[in-house]
Amino acid sequence: MKPCPITLAVLLPLLVSTITSCLPDNLIGLGRPSFYSHPERGSHEEESPAEETGPFHYACAVSYPEGYDWRQDSSFIREGCRVLLYCNSRAILELRTGKTEQLSPDPDSHHIIDGQLYTEYSSAGRSCIKCNGETILDYPEREKLCGLLRYGKDWYSLGRNRDGGGFTFRKNGEILLKNASGTPFGDFGHPLCGQGGALYQDTDGICFFHSCGTPVQGLFLCRNGTDELIFNTNGGTVLDAGFALGEIAAVYSRDGQCWLRRGGASDGMETEISFQKQLHWISPGIHLWNGRILVCGCTEVVKTGMLYTIGLLPDSMKLSVINGKNCMVYSAEELFVLELSRDGPPLLFCYGTEGLYSGQAGIPVKDSKDGIFIASPSCGKVVDGQFLLAVSPFPGAGPPYLLRNGSVLLEYGVNGYISGIEVSLKPPN
Q1: How wide is the angle at C-alpha 306 spanned by C-alphas 273 and 370, nearest 5°?
Q2: DSSP letter assigned to residue 377
Q3: Are 416 and 70 contacting, i.e. CB atoms less than 8 angstroms apart?
Q4: For residue 234, which of 33, 59, 146, 345 sits 20 to 30 Å off, Cα-Cα?
Q5: Do residues 393 and 371 lie in contact, with contact meaning Cβ atoms separated by under 8 Å?
Q6: pLDDT classification of 29: cutoffs 50, 70, 90
Q7: According to the model, what pLDDT value does residue 13 have?
Q8: Pairing state of beta strands 126-131 and 134-140?
Q9: Can you give the residue ranges of every domain in the chain?
Q10: What is the mean pLDDT of the chain?
Q11: Quick one: fold of 8-424?
């Protein structure tokens, strides 16, 4: 199904009928969310970001020469553009991309942390991590960064192997732990992760969660390079894990069923969330919503084979069909869902603190006649109950802009796209 503004009202009763035919009636709470008002493109809110006192709205922009269609697949894309770091409406850093500079325009290689731009670049069997264009880490092996944290004078990094499975945990580039088959949980922009991505800092050092295929299948907590087994899945697969509401939370599947497990190695409690194999969770993520754990992600209704984005509150076992299958989900006190569609513009939905089960159809982020680009999940943030989204119109349709609750807050004068945003109380250097 590919929802769009015109067909949602028609399709929703079909969704309700499909799901309710598969699950007990008392577990269903269905409905579309309410939405923020969306002024015409080009209008601005009266309130503007405070330049001196904060909060400061940082954005990373990838810029091309005027008139160039940056959607083309050519060598110019990688060698002839610039990466800029904005603080509010002012560019505070400008870097050139290319092999010599070891800087890529790829959106997932840019990370804004405390108002600084961190970039990653892999080539010729090596990985290079830079801060504002200056190298801080350079080590052998091609890795995709999923965690970066400074602890004292030391840099800790966690990277997935780009040329195969597994991951490597490093301190100042030196290997602390290497696993050829495991999967680390968390990333930059993950709902349970902070600025360090998959890496956490506690009183005893730097830690992260990961699964391991052999010799024990289960969830592990690695701290300073030493593994601790949290629980054994007995042949199952961990799908997501992290710290939530002061304890360890994980979703795992086994033999066609799925569970949410909360607690440590000795005090864990499990809740079955697949309704006795009636739902097949494909990509569940653990979110915090209004002080509660919410499991949300793409799910197959086994009886029909249909795919939906479903939200489940395990403490009450109530679920809701949130949107179609292709969504970006952001949560805090309120839940924001950005639904992507090939047939029209993205739709922005908001579920308030009252519940997941009432509301109306979503609104387009931009008129359907103009194509737009949401470069990465890091283009969206929930900050103090407000939803921020960096939107990049296709070439010729205007400059990229930042929405706050559906209204244009800032524009960026580049021919290109925004790769990620951050809101911080820390002023630019």
Answers
A1: 115
A2: G
A3: yes
A4: 146
A5: yes
A6: very low
A7: 34
A8: antiparallel
A9: 8-424
A10: 80
A11: Methylamine Dehydrogenase; Chain H (2.130.10)
